Amino acid sequence: MSDIWQRPRNKTATTTRRGQSDNRSYGGPLITQPDNSKIGMQTGLLPGADGVSEAVSKNCSTSALNDIEALPSGTFSGPPAKRRRMEAQPGYSVKGCLELLSYPTPLKYLRHTEVRVPTLQDCVTEIVVEYDHSERAQPPDIALHRLSSIDHEGIIRPRLYRLAQEVHTELGLYGSSYFWKLTLEDMIQKLGRTSTPIDQARTMVEQKAMDRLWTDFSRRKPCIPCLDVASDDFNVSPKFLKLVELIETNTSPTNSFRVLVLVKRKIVASMIVELLRELAAFNRVRNVRPEAMTQAQYMDQELTFDKFVRGDTNILLITKSSEHMTFPKCDIVIRFDLFESQLSYAASVAHCSNSDGYLVHMVERGNAGHRRVLADITALSDDFQRWLPRLKPGSTGAIPPRSLHETLDPYWSDSDDDEPSPLIRDPTTGGIVKCSDAITVIHRLAASLQDDHNGFTIEPFFQCAETREGMRTFTISLPQPSSIRPITGPPRKFPPDSLQAACYLACSKLLDEGMLDYRMFPQRLLSTGSQSTWGDRPSTSFSADEAIEVVNTRNAAVASAGTHRYTRKRPDFWVNSSSLPRTRLYPTFVAPDDLKDEPYAPVLILTRGPLPPFSNFPLYSSGFMTNTRFWTGAPFDVTEEQYTLLHSYTSRVCRAITNKPFACPADGFPYLLAPVDDFWEDDFPDSIGYGNRRSVDTHIPWDLVKLAAEKCFIHLLPDEYADVERFVADAVIQDRRVEFTNRFYVVRVRRDMTPLSKAIDSPREAEYPSLLEYCKTRIKDFQGLKNEKQPLLEVAVAPPAINYLNPVLRPLLQSSKAPPKYLIPELCAKFTIPASTFRTMLLVPSILHRIDHQLLVKELNAHFFQHTILEEHLIAALTPPSASVAFDYERLELFGDAFLKYVASIYCFVTTPHVREGALHMARQKIISNKALLTGANRIGLPPYIQSKPFVAKTWTPITSPHSSRDPINDQKAVHYNDAVAGDTSAIQTTSKRSKKQKQQDEQNIQWLGDKTVADVVEAIIGAAYLSGGQRIALQTMKVLSVNIPGVEQWSDFSRLFTSQTSPSTVPLPTATVRAVETIVGNVFARPQLLAQALTHTSIGAHDDRTYDRLEFVGDAVLDFLVVQFIYDRNPGLSPNGLTLLKSAMVSNHALAAFCVHSGLHIHLRHAAPEVGTAVQVYVRKLGEVREKEYRLAQSERRLPGQYWLALDPPKTLSDVVESVIGALYISDDFQETSVRAFFDGTIKPFYEYHIRLQSLCPHPTTTLFELLQSFGCCQHGIAKEREDYRTRCEVVVHDVVLASALEATSAAATRTVATLALDALDGDPHFMIRTCDCRVSQQSKKARKTQKAQLGYEEDGDISASASSGKHHPRD
């Protein structure tokens, strides 16, 4: 088929085909068959790669964009079968054109498509060239395998083998053979240039080895270029062949004709130049003078640049690092490789000649990933089109709009991988900025700083100045208002070098100030070898060689058939920041709100690298909640003395938190802790981020830091007559003068009591006549008191550090020994850390644990999803219920499961035409099964990021070494997640006996995950992606998670893949029927034949194309997703099982059948079975009767009607018709949700809202209440009943908390009322069960649940007997 798509600018085109000419005037593009004849270059023509050329009028503007269906193979161009016309409006984007081409015309049938850029002063023609997949013509690289087998001395470096493989993949066997020829010749020349005797002695051995390699290579048959695809000797890649054909048919002998080729890898660019020169020597191409700008030195680049300017070189190959240079205008710019970068795209447009330039995109035929990237980079917003002309050569540029689309893949070339170069590393994600990345990073950062509220304004970005020495400097100005001042780079002779150096300096300074957003850093994404999603899809967090090692290791521990042990990943931030200098610290301000009316002072977490911004999160204690706020301050430098004090202070805090000995060297802490004065409490910023940052170093009370660093405690009172109130204010006191002991908070000073008083209300001293007597008896060598009339201190025990992330009410266990209530000031010591600060420090372990989770989420989001998922959703998606925090993945899992089923159903429908519904179900199950999701998750390395373990404060220890972030590859004791796929159940052998503490620490580094848990996390991540960015982000997330939907990279691919057609024998619907159904759904069917199919019962014909079976399969999935989305948004705090109850009620056959009758769709059902018609008629009559009865009852009880249809058994045909009509409407709308969502919102949702609610799920509300509480896993709930006079009082009690209460005349009425009130209470307070219940029961049998239901008092009928009316019945625990 055709290889080039281009849209002609005029309506008249001349096409030459096999020596014939045909002149016709059509409004749309011509569709032709490829031809192998070669046509010479003509003025104003851009011939196709197969020799077909089209005349293009340069002065005629495009008046319309047409989309036509492809003619069958073998036909010549003629009037289009169908034509959709869209007027080209000013600002019409390239993406719109590409989307028009995607349906209904398959991409491979298109001939030429010209795309204009309306905002440029002169138009540039864009052409997309397709090449075949390279596997068809890729014989193995024999030279590579032969050389590697005989190179025993290792003369050839491994890097050369890798480069040869890249050349072989991109250019073919001829390219790799020529690469080895040049490489070996170069190595021989270098060996001959030895000078010293030592070098000569070493070289003799290498020379012999080199001679052996060259002799063996020379014996091989010379590789001659063969560009004939039909020949068995074809030895170039189809991609290179297409490039040669483009160059061969479009070059000109004039010096003013220039071609610019953009290539990803430098080695590929260099070899293309060598191969073109060889082909010119064989007279295969003419008028080519190629060069490649791949030199490492800018002086050499300038020489190559000058040759291109003079015309000595007419074809210049560059990599992405050189595209920002100011080249002379080029006649053709060829993007040999695709880059998901609008900056790169804009640079290519700027390099094209204004009036008659061509921009050529080379894409692989049938590659959906290439189609998606091309659509993304050519989706030009209005702001982007305004900004694009500012990239003209010689301009100072402009700050890009916020809509700038850039992938995080840096597209490093081969020299960037191996040659040492300065770099900047982000401690959060490990991303690296090299000099070649700096310009892109600064553009991305500037775009992110644009203010959406004020609209996009063109602001200058770069200012170039020339020094007296002839050097150039660039000054970068970021968007205003911003606290980032303009940054001027170092002087350089070459302008591109100067701009790059300025951008790199800006990145370095911004990171040093903690103001370079971690989301700006490039991420090198590893490929899994399949279709890419965002650039190259990440396979794991380690290299391919290491992945092979992991796969070959089979030491996974298996607890059961569905449970495996995985390594828990630790954040890389602490490892990355530990290597940074400790003289500069980055403060993160932590300020909890007061909890239980106790003051909590703010503290600082000081790190060597900038912590990213964190969202605020709550902490819980004994039923109370406090919000913890974060803010990042400006970095500051510390002296060695100050750092030593902070280290000692942090050690003191850690020993106090654990109440155990602890020591750590000065370099061992990746973070430090510090107090801060009260200045911030009234001046805390409302927003978090990389904005204005205030200094905090002047607000650190260094005197308190020094005191705590040097001493653990001091005397509470300087003398026995001191002012007690003043010295105990905000103090933590100890009853013993040792470091590791109990500590107490002062409640108040009791001046009404002295040591001679009897402590009646203190159990510890109650049996003694006075507190002084207790001291004499219990304190060894007690010397007495200096002042026996001093007041006493009433105290409360300072609790130990606990898990403050668990919201469940859980009181602390009381010690068997009674704690003191009163203390004598003279005998006490004062802890050197104030009470308000110490309270906050006790929260630090829980806070750091949560920070670790957020850091992991940021890593995962960067490495896998390019920050496209909102972190608040992603952290929930990675958290199973077993983590015992205030959130988990269960709601997101329900949402993601519905979307996964939705996408998989559409995919099976469009890729397997004419397949029956049962086969579609089986095909879908292979995609969405837990096994398939588990396999994909293990393939990309997801399980280590899952945080399933609850935080255990008792085992908490500060991070003291970078090795605490365990590497799942290098750690020999770690269990690799790839092993879980193997299912090896061999036991893990231990080499030595480990202590209890060591075992506890080991357990913190591993986790046992069920296969279903991993699959649930995958579904939850998909749900989080949809909530973050809709269909597009969710679909791309599915690709990253290895969901098996090949050929789909963007939503429009479903339309492109759709090949199923309605059977011609289907009887069309009468016009009146079509109009009636369209009135019901509120939309017009673009394809009425699909509506006819949707209303046709299987009794009419066995052929599925004439019945609704396949459409019902699609409609069922679409309706499921719309229902889940509806109830998810309407019930933000309802448990997943509660949502499932609602969903099951809404999509049940009973509800859909009732809606079918309610809407009138049943009238239009077409069938040929009398029993179907009879069943429908009977059901409609009975449904009307129960409906009237329920409506009258609801009116009398002043409530909304419930599910009146539950007692009837509906014909399945009615529910199938509803789903099939939804499927037909969805497909008729080109697989877009617009029409079907309007039908759902306007007709289906009001029906649901009126009849299906939490209170009406079951005929009796007590059943619904029981099922709902069971869905939370709660086992401590029930209905308590008691008699009051002649009425019955019922209370719903959950964990000893009364949820609702009702008083009615009868027990049945009271039970119904209290159950309804409890459901209302749960609906109004969605976090009640999260705060109250922490018990999760296993699934019970129906009989066991029925028994438990009766025991807990959920009777639906009857009354309380008189004999039992005297007491109150409490629910069982």
UniProtKB/TrEMBL annotation:
Highest taxon, organism lineage: Eukaryota
Residue stretches in coiled coil: none
Region of interest (Disordered), residue spans: 1-38, 1340-1373
Cofactor: Mg(2+)
Keyword terms of this UniProt record: ATP-binding, Helicase, Hydrolase, Nucleotide-binding, Repeat
UniProt keyword Plastid present: no
Annotated Polar residues bias: 11-24
SUPFAM superfamilies linked to this entry: RNase III domain-like
Entry annotated with the keyword Nucleus: no
GO molecular function, one term: ATP binding
Occurrences of domain PAZ (ranges): 712-832
SMART domains: RIBOc (SM00535)
PROSITE patterns: PAZ, RNASE_3_1, RNASE_3_2
Domain RNase III: 853-1030, 1074-1230
CDD domains assigned: RIBOc (cd00593)
GO biological process, alphabetically ordered: RNA processing
Protein name listed in UniProt: Dicer-like protein 1
